Amino acid sequence: MNDQEIEKKMMSIVTEDGSVEEVEVILAFEFKDTKKEYVIYTKNEKDENENITVYVSNVDRSSGEPRLMGVEDEDEWNRVKDVLRELSKSE
After folding, report:
1. Burial of 15 (0-12, 13-18, 19+ CB in 10 A)
2. CA distance to 2, 30, 57, 70, 91, per residue, from 33 (Å)
3. Among positive and negative, which fits the CA dihedral 14, 16, 21, 27?
4. With contact defined as beta carbons under 8 Å apart, do 41 and 11 qualify?
5. Contact 33, 23 (CB under 8 A)
6. Which of 31, 34, 29 is nearest to 56 (CA)?
7. What is the per-residue pLDDT across 28-59, written as a single tens digit (0 to 9) for each?
């Protein structure tokens, strides 16, 4: 077992109301075929079952400044869910 503490990757996000929140990045990845980038992150909130809530966003870099967008396409969302399933198996 490794005794080294894993350093958390944090990022700041600007919410729709303009406030800034610090969130913990769980995973950032890109689908090579579509060149779309995604980030999975958490605010370390727990649901009623004590599971940590995670968020998934598409990273839009078209305006120069990265923006987090929702995942709208159903096929795209199914591919992201496959990544989430694999991630949960490795934990």
Report:
1. exposed
2. 35, 9, 18, 19, 27
3. negative
4. yes
5. no
6. 29
7. 999 999 999 999 999 999 999 998 899 999 99
Residue 72, phi then psi, degrees to nearest 5? -95, -35
Which residues, listed in sequence order, are joined to residue 24 by a DSSP beta bridge? 10, 42
Q: What angle do CA 14, 20, 24 make, to 5 degrees?
A: 90
Instruction: Using the structure block, give the residue that is written with the tokens 């913990």.
Output: 24
The two three-digit tokens of residue 26, written as one number:
């769980």
Q: For 10, what's the count of Cα atoms within 13 Å in the CB-facing half-sphere?
A: 9
pTM of the model: 0.82
Query: How far apart are alpha carbons 59 and 68 in whole angstroms?
Result: 5
